[in-house]
Amino acid sequence: MDNTLVDAPTISRLKWRCRRGLLENDLFVERFFRRHESTLTVGQVEGLQLLMDLADNDLLDLLLARKDPEGTLDQPVVREVLAQMRQPG
Q1: Is residue 2, in this structure, part of any structural domain at all?
Q2: Separation of alpha carbons 23 and 28, rounded Å
Q3: Considering the domain boundaries, does residue 40 fall inside one?
Q4: Does the keyword Cell inner membrane apply (predicted)?
Q5: Mean pLDDT value of segment 8-21
Q6: CA dihedral for 9, 12, 18, 21, sign (positive or negative)
Q7: pLDDT, tens digit, 9 for 90 and up, residues 25-38
Q8: Beta-ladder partners of 30
């Protein structure tokens, strides 16, 4: 996993990419960025992008721990980002 920090323009584009159709997902994403924006690494961005490729309901199932990552999502970087996103309040 690449631990290089991500620059501000990349984070700005990523935030736009992470906008979701379900408010519940947006709340998880906003909290994630509030906590981790200044320390995001290239590897974490890759994991986040994989999660953002999901349909809204599938993403929500992962965020609420109704399901665990499977297939191409069953990677340490995805699990790391998912754990960060699941951290309570």
Answers
A1: no
A2: 9
A3: yes
A4: no
A5: 93
A6: negative
A7: 999 999 999 999 99
A8: none
